[in-house]
């Protein structure tokens, strides 16, 4: 039995279950097929009933929607697609009245090319103050016809686009780590820094409880913007290259991409920490920083920086007891060393839903945008079974957990989207080679009846919903013993009653190599990642992700028990 350290602190975010709402796909109150803020407000009582502590809203700001709102044209306003600032006020008040905190998304690496700041930069021309706010460079080659360096966009293709001067001649190039409609800021500009402080204050003044910070590892680029070719198997968002697993490469091997995880980002977060600290109550900054290993990612949550970072190492861990035990230990150790809680996450709007991902095999294991032509589509029943077991394990762990809308219904990835419906820029920029992320963004089913399964007051939904989702609709699961929704509700209730989120992990041995078993206070958790059944220890069963046969836990299942000698 080994013990892991407990991090202290009473701030709400240390133990919170935070539910990600993807506004386009949660609930549509005006019947246009696109989710909106009024739709969210109307559904909040059902989230209260689920038992979450906070919601994180993906962007709902003014945007041409070239990257589903992560291309912001006005950081301080609501896109008419989603409603108005007044609708936001209503949403936030409704949430707060229900005891639910509200976290909003901030996108500081880039704006939309429609943003007034970028348009002013284009108009002002080379060498201007306005251009210095973004990353413009002259091209290489005799006439500047070659991009300034060899960087590639995360979404595929070049990370540079050439501008056209007002007289119609080709001009400078601008950097976009993502879509060409998402120009990267230059964070060396004090003006940019001041604008973002003002954006934070705008939302803090309105009462938000914190921010999820988009691409929080990308804002600073290495001086001189040197050429860089990422390893072929490396994650495009900057996680460790596959070679990190090879001999000779250690956890200390530095990340070399000149656009990810540069030291200078930390100064920005120390500054933002102060901006939040000037407000009463506990406000949270949560980093989306795809940085490996976890000991490096923990730098984002040092005491004077951000408060939480998404644990993508956990998300990327396969359903395998030994690997899970090791990533759990590593997470508690790395975050604990800087006094931060670990977070846990299995799904979000950028990855294949875990009810499908956990049943992927072989070449598809990376799960990069599965679609209809993927070899060996995941087994839906096995995926759901593993997802329930994996979620039951995650929700027992000390720290803060993130849920992605629809996972509480056991939704799988939508793999049969027609090509014409796809909207992810990845699909367009790779000419269909990568399916992108639309399959995890399909509007969620609330009711089995009706064209849009209760997602919309009308019949439409912006991405088509698989017809078999009728059976997974919330109204088919609510109050139904054994449903995935009831499993989540029970887990969240027990997690609170037994203070699991502020507990510790003490591994228990003797269950075999395919079982991760541990004690957290007065609860024993047994997660069986193998196929053979295992005998449960003594103690009342509090929760089980599958039916038990007597006191045996079947394969691909997790149980929680009241510890015998507690
Ligand atoms: C983040 C978001 C993703 C977006 C990208 C660019 O990774 O989660 O959805 O496309 O940043 O803003």
From TrEMBL:
Keyword Hydrolase in record: yes
Alphabetical keyword list: Hydrolase
Protein name: Glycoside hydrolase family 13 protein
GO molecular function annotation: alpha-amylase activity
PANTHER family (alphabetical): ALPHA-AMYLASE FAMILY MEMBER, NEUTRAL AND BASIC AMINO ACID TRANSPORT PROTEIN RBAT
Stated family: Belongs to the glycosyl hydrolase 13 family.
Ranges for domain Glycosyl hydrolase family 13 catalytic: 20-441
Organism this protein belongs to: Cryobacterium glaciale
Any one of the GO BP annotations: oligosaccharide catabolic process
Coiled-coil spans in chain: none
Source species taxonomy: Bacteria, Bacillati, Actinomycetota, Actinomycetes, Micrococcales
Pfam families: Alpha-amylase
